[in-house]
Design brief:
Blueprint: H1 9-15, E1 28-36, H2 42-56, E2 68-72, E3 76-82, E4 86-93, H3 111-115, E5 120-131, H4 137-143, E6 153-157, E7 162-166, E8 175-181, H5 186-207, H6 209-235, H7 240-285, E9 288-289, H8 296-387, H9 389-392, H10 396-429
Helix pairs in contact: 5-7, 6-7, 6-8, 7-8, 8-10
């Protein structure tokens, strides 16, 4: 059967199969690095991976559309993954020296190629996976006896199928984890190692918002103080000019706060998302506490949670301040609009009084016009009477006198009718 498929069907189906864990068997060494990536470095990153293929004599170059690659390089394997804000390089190798000798997977990777990886390191870790028989947890705990138990993390993970040791500190550029496999199996071991690396990476990515929160906190302190002063000025405003000055300053403050919201919203949202991933990955470790030592969950709750809660509080406080400024601006605009409405009413009242005065003047002028037109009309009648005097032998003065009230009446009637017609047309227009 040939059925029409959605153009994104295969891509969406493959998405759930991306970034698979690498099955691992103890002993093994894992080195991990996460590099922040700008848009212009993505092509450089793919080109750099291509140079590794060429250096190792591998026949297939990386696909430009690939979001993850697993490269078998002989002495080591490389797993490359493309994420939203960063790219990760995970190296897997077999140990050649005795356990806990400081050996890492990067020892067999071309150093020049590593140093030229594009971007900046945001997270880097070494993991030493040990078999139970090669090094016992009791022996490792004995070596850790002199270290501070407040910073050293020791717990049983994967439902007590393995032991974990770390301090989440950076030693020579890398944090270090020691995992003693008891009975996890290859697939489960791969998933646990991947979870540890994700916890370390997402922890750092989440903390990127903390310096931003500190900077925004200073801005919010000043902006809240400015808003309080503007509200006091608004309450004590004595005239519309004072209110307009307050509105101008309030608009500037609103623009400053909105700029801060726009520039930090992504970072705070990403921090919350990364923190949720950290919490989820910690739960998937299925930790069991070892007496006298904190677990990863306890460490995150005590050290990471306060910082992320601060970021969430600053983000909420920023949004609240923006809403308060908007409410204050709306209130002030209402006051300014009411004052403008009052001024408009006064102006309309003045215009109405002027219109009435003009109407009275017009009526006066109309009365004078009746007199003038009557005068000229009577003069015309007088001229006509004088011209016909010899025909009818009539007294021109009498005729003129009789015509004056008739002419005045006709003119007054015509003027009144015209005014009434204009008033009716104006009423129909409204």
């Amino acid at each position: 059967m040939e059925l029409r498929s959605h153009p994104l069907r295969q891509r969406l189906n493959d998405e759930v199969h991306t970034r698979p864990p690498i099955p691992l068997e103890a002993p093994a060494l894992v080195s991990f690095m996460a590099f922040t990536r700008a848009e212009h470095t993505l092509a450089e990153e793919k080109a750099h991976l291509g140079r590794l293929y060429e250096r190792l004599g591998l026949p297939v170059a990386p696909n430009e559309e690939a979001a993850h690659l697993i490269i078998d390089c002989g002495d080591f394997r490389l797993k490359w993954e493309l994420h939203g804000e960063f790219s990760t390089y995970t190296f897997f190798a077999q140990p050649r020296a005795t356990p806990r000798s400081g050996e890492t997977a990067l020892d067999v990777v071309p150093q020049a190629w590593i140093q030229n990886i594009p971007g900046q390191i945001i997270s880097a870790s070494h993991i030493e996976l040990l078999a139970k028989g090669s090094s016992s947890p009791t022996e490792i705990l004995w070596h850790l006896g002199s270290d501070s138990t407040d910073t050293q993390i020791v717990s049983q993970i994967a439902g007590q199928a393995a032991w974990l040791f770390t301090d989440f500190r950076i030693h020579e550029g890398f944090s270090r984890f020691t995992v003693v496999d008891d009975s996890m199996g290859k697939l489960r071991t791969g998933r646990i190692i991947q979870r540890l690396l994700e916890i370390e990476t997402y922890r750092i990515m989440a903390l990127l918002a903390f310096p931003v929160a500190k900077s925004v906190g200073k801005l919010l302190n000043r902006a809240e103080a400015d808003l309080a002063q503007l509200i006091d000025r608004m309450v004590s405003a004595a005239n519309p000019n004072d209110e307009r000055a307050v509105l101008t300053d309030l608009t500037k403050l609103a623009a400053e706060v909105e700029h801060s919201v726009a520039s930090t919203n992504f970072r705070f949202g990403a921090a919350a998302a990364y923190y949720r991933l950290v919490q989820q990955r910690v739960l998937e470790l299925k930790e069991t506490r070892v007496s006298g030592y904190p677990t990863i969950k306890g460490f995150m709750e005590r050290r990471l949670a306060p910082a992320l809660n601060t970021c969430a509080a600053i983000s909420s406080r920023q949004e609240d301040l923006s809403a308060r400024i908007a409410r204050t601006s709306q209130l002030l605009r209402t006051r300014v609009d009411m004052e403008l409405e009052r001024q408009n009413q006064e102006l309309l009242g003045q215009m109405n009084r002027r219109a009435k005065l003009q109407l009275r003047l017009q009526e006066t002028v109309e009365g004078l016009s009746v007199v003038v037109l009557t005068y000229y009309g009577s003069q015309l009648v007088q001229y006509l009477a004088k011209g016909s005097k010899e025909l009818h032998h009539l007294n021109t003065d009498v005729i003129t006198a009789v015509s004056i009230p008739l002419i005045a009446g006709l003119i007054a009637w015509g003027t009144h009718r015209m005014r009434k017609k204009l008033a009716a047309e104006e009423g129909d227009a409204h």
